[in-house]
């Protein structure tokens, strides 16, 4: 949307344009997410085009920045034959692949969190107004990328404590930088509608969330990120730091690296909306222990050329197994449907999409990619046929009988109804599909697309258009 607004030459006031855009593509709640990721995405697409391939390349570039910065950090203490294989082992993991090939701000936030903490470290060693301003700017970018940047607060305090840097509180420009950070971040979260996720407070919030499903997702995240080989080496590196005097030179950063996953796990267990993918911000800090584990392995093997070769071969073998085990990116076939609908023309007549919440959002996104935006107006079946609360725990149909539903369908202003047989669709979808098959509805089945499924399920995407008057 930001890309289209700039490319169109700022055709109207921003809020008016956003509201009109949302009418056409009702996929996201504006203000719900902070702006930095989307501003970056808009700048990228202005340079390289607003295609799916373009924005996925952006995700890969962000991943590359994260691993490049992590590698530069690791090279402080570890040789290239330790740091590079460790990064390769994790770069090929299922979690990094998943986050690199889907649109989301987790990798960007992880990069900004690491960059901010490294500037804090630099500032603690050589305080200056320029460094204070740069640290504040990076922290602000992180906070305005995702609210989970809250983790920076305890991590910064831990770093200041580990480095014995409490003297910086006497510096006036430190307080000035903090005031600047608050002056921009606080108004966003407290004045922009939806920025505090007000509508989901009663479903999330603070507490202790350690149910079986949440714990299973949390525990399975780590082998998916590092692999079992990586986890074993991380554990060995942790033991080496805690119990071996030969690694005292790695402190005080070692304390920060140890604290980072503990802080993030604490947030995961106490903030309900802290999703498991947010734990990827631990990656650079656990890479530190992975390198330490490789170092210990090389020491046990003799620390010569043979030991170095063994470390590289072991990491390469782990990376190869990660790539072999990587699942294929799921494809539902919605792009074929979007191309068909966009080619049919008549953008002035709205479309109606009936699916589960994910299916409706995915098809709207596909339509936006293939449209001359904003063109088609797309309505969602979950808004037309039912009334539900935000989490769909209270669902009421907007029709009382089959005859009532037939009258609704006959009165629809849409040029096509797309019924996606999604696996998690609500019961009303089957009722709508059955009613559309009735000649009294005024609709006819025009096209059927297969809904692709990695599980091999045979589902369809049905496109209904108005039946000729003579056949009604």
Which properties best describe this structure?
472 residues, alpha/beta, Rossmann fold, five-stranded mixed beta sheet, two-stranded antiparallel sheet, 19 helices
Write the layout of secondary structure elements.
Blueprint: H1 2-7, H2 14-24, H3 36-48, H4 52-74, H5 80-91, H6 94-100, H7 106-125, H8 129-143, H9 152-162, H10 172-191, H11 212-243, H12 253-270, H13 283-301, H14 305-325, H15 334-343, E1 351-354, H16 357-370, E2 378-380, H17 381-384, E3 386-388, E4 395-397, H18 402-411, E5 416-420, H19 428-436, E6 443-451, E7 459-466
Parallel strand pairs: 1-2, 1-5
Antiparallel strand pairs: 3-4, 5-7, 6-7
How would you describe this structure to a colleague?
- With 472 residues, the protein is of the alpha/beta class.
- It has two domains: 31-325, no CATH class; 334-471, 3-Layer(aba) Sandwich (Rossmann fold), CATH 3.40.50.
- Helices cover 58% and strands 7% of the residues.
- The protein has a five-stranded mixed sheet with strand order 2-1-5-7-6, with helices on both faces. A two-stranded antiparallel ribbon has the order 3-4.
- Helix 7 packs antiparallel against helix 8, helix 9 runs antiparallel to helix 12 (253-270) and helix 15 crosses helix 16.
Count of helix runs? 19
Contiguous runs where pLDDT drops below 50 for at least 5 residues: none
Structural class: alpha/beta
What separation lies between the terminal Cα atoms? 40 Å
Helix content: 55-70%
Shape: globular
Query: How many distinct folded domains?
Result: 2
The secondary-structure element order is HHHHHHHHHHHHHHHEHEHEEHEHEE
Mean pLDDT, all residues? 89
Please tell me how large the radius of gyration is. 26 Å
Largest sheet: 5 strands, mixed
Strand order of the largest sheet: 2-1-5-7-6
Beta percentage is: 5-15%
Tally of strands = 7
């Amino acid at each position: 949307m930001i890309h289209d607004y700039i490319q169109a030459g700022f055709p109207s006031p921003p809020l008016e344009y956003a509201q009109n855009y949302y009418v056409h593509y009702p996929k996201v709640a504006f203000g719900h997410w902070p702006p930095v990721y989307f501003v970056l995405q808009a700048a990228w697409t202005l340079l390289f085009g607003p295609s799916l391939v373009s924005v996925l390349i952006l995700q890969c570039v962000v991943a590359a920045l994260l691993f490049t910065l992590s590698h530069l950090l690791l090279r402080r203490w570890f040789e290239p034959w330790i740091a590079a294989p460790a990064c390769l082992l994790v770069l090929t993991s299922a979690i990094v692949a998943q986050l690199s090939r889907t649109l989301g701000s987790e990798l960007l936030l992880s990069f900004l969190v690491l960059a901010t903490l490294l500037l804090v470290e630099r500032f603690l060693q050589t305080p200056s107004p320029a460094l204070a301003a740069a640290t504040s700017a990076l922290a602000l970018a992180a906070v305005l990328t995702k609210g989970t940047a809250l983790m920076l607060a305890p991590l910064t305090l831990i770093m200041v404590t580990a480095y014995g840097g409490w003297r910086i509180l006497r510096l006036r420009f430190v307080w000035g930088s903090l005031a600047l950070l608050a002056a921009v971040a606080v108004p966003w979260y407290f004045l922009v509608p939806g920025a505090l996720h007000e509508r989901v407070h009663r479903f999330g919030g603070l507490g202790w969330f350690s149910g079986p499903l949440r714990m299973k997702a949390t525990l399975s995240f780590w082998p998916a990120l590092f692999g079992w080989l990586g986890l074993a080496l991380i554990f060995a590196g942790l033991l080496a730091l805690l119990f071996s005097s030969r690694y005292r030179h790695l402190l005080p950063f070692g304390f920060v690296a140890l604290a980072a996953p503990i802080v993030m796990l604490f947030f995961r267990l106490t903030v309900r909306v802290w999703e498991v993918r947010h734990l990827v911000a631990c990656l650079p800090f656990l890479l530190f222990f992975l390198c330490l584990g490789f170092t210990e392995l090389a020491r046990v093997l003799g620390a010569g050329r043979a030991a170095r070769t063994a470390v590289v071969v072991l990491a390469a073998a782990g990376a190869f197994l990660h790539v072999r085990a990587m699942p294929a990116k799921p494809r539902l076939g919605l792009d074929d449907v979007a191309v068909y609908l966009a080619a049919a023309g008549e953008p002035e007549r709205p479309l109606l999409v009936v699916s589960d919440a994910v299916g409706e959002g995915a098809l709207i996104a596909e339509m936006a990619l293939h449209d001359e935006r904003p063109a088609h107006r797309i309505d969602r079946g979950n808004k037309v046929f039912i009334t539900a609360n935000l989490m769909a725990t209270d669902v009421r149909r907007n029709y009382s009988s089959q005859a009532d539903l037939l009258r609704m369908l006959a009165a629809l202003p849409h040029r096509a109804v797309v019924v996606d047989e999604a696996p998690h669709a609500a019961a009303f979808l089957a009722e709508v599909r059955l009613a559309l098959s009735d000649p009294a509805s005024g609709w006819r089945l025009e096209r059927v697309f297969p809904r692709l499924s990695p599980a091999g399920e045979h589902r369809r995407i049905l496109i209904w258009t108005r039946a000729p008057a003579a056949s009604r």
